[in-house]
TrEMBL record:
Pathway: Amino-acid biosynthesis; L-arginine biosynthesis; carbamoyl phosphate from bicarbonate: step 1/1; Pyrimidine metabolism; UMP biosynthesis via de novo pathway; (S)-dihydroorotate from bicarbonate: step 1/3. This is Carbamoyl phosphate synthase small chain. Its EC number is 6.3.5.5. The keyword ATP-binding applies. L-glutamine binds at S45, G215, G217, L243, Q246, N284, G286, Y287. One of its GO terms (molecular function) is carbamoyl-phosphate synthase (glutamine-hydrolyzing) activity. Keywords: Amino-acid biosynthesis, Arginine biosynthesis, ATP-binding, Glutamine amidotransferase, Ligase, Nucleotide-binding, Pyrimidine biosynthesis. Small subunit of the glutamine-dependent carbamoyl phosphate synthetase (CPSase). CPSase catalyzes the formation of carbamoyl phosphate from the ammonia moiety of glutamine, carbonate, and phosphate donated by ATP, constituting the first step of 2 biosynthetic pathways, one leading to arginine and/or urea and the other to pyrimidine nucleotides. The small subunit (glutamine amidotransferase) binds and cleaves glutamine to supply the large subunit with the substrate ammonia. The active site is at C242 (nucleophile), H323, E325. Residues 2-122 form the Carbamoyl-phosphate synthase small subunit N-terminal domain. Residues 1-168 are annotated as: CPSase. It comes from Halobaculum magnesiiphilum.
């Protein structure tokens, strides 16, 4: 007998099995990643969303904190065809509702056809379809989470030490932990800063690179980070990943738009415009850069031609829409971090095009 219900904005209610109890709501998205469930569940970019795994069995190699990308689970709830006990217990201990034993193919197909949509979940002994529908009714559009950065960013600045070869100022809009570690491994000291850090604080650090992280929600709501990029453009080399690329593009006069269901997975093909080389990438985003403004598009998604890489040689800027830190995901694009630090050296301002 069902003890969990998932109500979708298209009017349907799915019966399911409760694996971690609770009631919640969020924008329903799916990932096609077949590994990396710990990294996905701890990726702050999933804040305020409900994450469905299209791969049917989630948890088959356990749960290890060393693979976490942050210190908590970020989606409001998780859905799979089957969660192992390890994952179910972890989500329960985090207070994040989880449901399985439902037709996730149907959910994924609906999101593919109708786009990311609101959903409500009720799971546990007292769950009812009405409770799931009540949750659904209270669901807020992603773009209406106006201060989502505050939910995921650090409150206070701190430094992650590398070898002190470079100083990177990293604006934490909900960063994955492997972004600072990819930089410290390459010799940089990384100064992690709140999402709304002011220009004076950044100027005092006198960074070699100003780097804007990934993060959740609508890039248009990160006005303070955008103003920061505008302030330092042309003065300090700039880099960005995912939300970071979107914020940098907006700061250079560009624009972003909501995609139908976004890119969430570990095998997204990306083509370098100059060399034609294709790399496989890991991705998690629901918005894209519709207009790069004064930046040049260097890389394109092979499936839908959306902008995957941007640059400005004049202002020393390189950004990626995908996740070059590659947790989870193929390691094809780790070279991005070398390109970023090459900019820091004031060396080649023309990034090597193939990562
Ligand atoms: N991973 C990210 O940084 C996601 C960026 C943004 N929130 C989007 O959905 O497009």
């Amino acid at each position: 007998m069902a003890d969990a219900y998932v109500a979708l904005a298209d009017g349907r209610v799915f019966e399911a099995r409760a694996r971690a109890p609770g009631r919640t709501r969020g924008e329903l998205v799916f990932t096609t990643a077949y590994t990396g469930y710990e990294e996905s569940l701890t990726d702050p970019s999933y804040e305020e969303q409900v994450l469905t795994f299209s791969y049917p069995l989630i948890g088959n190699y356990g749960v290890r904190a060393e693979r976490f990308e942050s210190d908590r689970v970020h989606p409001n709830a998780a859905i799979a065809r089957e969660f192992t006990d390890d994952v179910a217990e972890w989500l329960e201990s985090e207070g994040v509702p989880a449901v399985d034993h439902l037709d996730t193919r149907d959910i994924v197909t609906s999101v593919r056809e109708e786009g990311a949509m609101a959903c409500g979940i009720a799971a546990g002994p007292d769950a009812t379809p009405e409770a799931a529908k009540e949750e659904l009714e209270q669901c807020v559009e992603m773009s209406d989470h106006l201060d989502i950065g505050k939910q995921v960013s650090t409150d206070e600045p701190y430094t992650v030490e590398g070898d002190g070869e470079y100083d990177v100022a990293l604006v934490d809009c909900g960063m994955k932990g492997s972004i600072p570690s990819s930089l410290t491994e390459r010799g940089a000291d990384v100064h992690v800063l709140p999402y709304d850090v002011d220009a004076e604080t950044v100027a005092e650090l006198d960074p070699d690179v100003l780097f804007v992280s990934n993060g959740p929600g609508d890039p248009a709501n990160f006005e303070s980070a955008q103003a920061l990029v505008e302030e330092f453009a042309g003065e300090v080399p700039l880099a960005g990943i995912c939300l970071g690329q979107q914020i940098v593009a907006r700061a250079f006069g560009g624009d972003t738009e909501k995609m139908a269901f976004g890119h969430h997975g570990v095998n997204q093909p990306v083509r370098d415009v100059e060399t034609g080389q294709v790399v496989m990438t890991t991705q998690n985003h629901g918005y894209s850069v519709a207009d790069p403004g004064d930046l040049e598009v260097t890389q394109l998604n092979v499936n839908d031609d959306t902008a995957e890489g941007l640059k400005s040689d004049e202002c020393a800027v390189i950004t990626r829409q995908y996740h070059p830190e590659a947790n989870p995901g193929p390691h094809d694009s780790l070279g991005f971090f070398d390109e970023v630090l090459e900019m820091a050296e004031g060396g080649s301002r023309t990034p090597v095009t193939a990562d």
